[in-house]
Amino acid sequence: MGGALDDGRHVKGLNLRGVVVVLRAWARHHGAPRGGWSPAQATDMGPARVHAKSRLTMATFLEALALWHGTVLDGSDAAAQRMGELGAKTNAQVHGAAIRPSARESLAAFPRAWRRNFDFGELAVTDTDDGVEVAFRGYDDSGRVHGLLHVGWFRTLVELSGGRDVRAHPITRPWVDGRALRIGLRFNE
């Protein structure tokens, strides 16, 4: 993973730690994935490699997500959303301050959290007639796994903030239509 292309985009190590824990646990029980770990992956899986405050390439992060999604999980759209759910719950446990008294407040605070964790792109959160829309800007090449992970992430963030009857769906999907990810959320508070 560490040998992955550095395109100038970086992710805070905190975002990768949980993924590495899952991959290590899976490997302890099942061995290396089919085809084995690449030398870079084996190095990055070392206990001293992923620090919460370190910056890793976006490519490294996406490669780890793909391993989790396709090796540990079943590779489905639902699995990608489940990854987002787990990420949001873990983040809320570690950083409870991200959860506000209402779902709309939590969503409104999220663009700042994005910038603390990713050194590129931005998020815009806007109210719509039937809910809230989260629009990504400057990240037009989101892949399927990371995009659907965000659908699960935002759905869970709303639920953790007291939202009920939450429905989340991608409005645009860069992996299909080449347009920046937009997620629609409908819920009751």
Give the SSE map.
Blueprint lengths: L9 E3 L1 H17 L8 H6 L10 E3 H15 L4 H18 L8 H15 L4 E7 L2 E7 L6 H17 L3 E9 L1 H4 L4 E7 L1
Antiparallel strand pairs: 1-2, 3-4, 4-6, 5-6
Helix pairs in contact: 1-3, 4-6, 5-6
Global morphology: globular
Parts with pLDDT < 50 across at least 5 consecutive residues: none
Structural class: alpha+beta
Question: Can you tell me the CATH topology of the largest domain?
Answer: Threonyl-tRNA Synthetase, Chain A, domain 2
How many strand units?
6
- The second-level CATH architecture of the largest domain is 2-Layer Sandwich
What does this structure look like?
With 189 residues, this protein is α+β, with helices and mostly antiparallel strands. It folds into 2 domains: 10-72; 101-188, Threonyl-tRNA Synthetase, Chain A, domain 2, CATH 3.30.980. It contains 7 helices and 6 strands, in the order βααβαααββαβαβ. It has helices at residues 14-30, 39-44, 58-72, 77-94, 103-117, 144-160, 174-177, and strands at residues 10-12, 55-57, 122-128, 131-137, 164-172, 182-188. The strands form 2 sheets. The chain has a 4-stranded antiparallel beta sheet with strand order 3-4-6-5. Strands 1-2 form a two-stranded antiparallel sheet. Helix 1 runs parallel beside helix 3 (58-72) and helix 5 crosses helix 6. The longest helix has 18 residues, at 77-94.
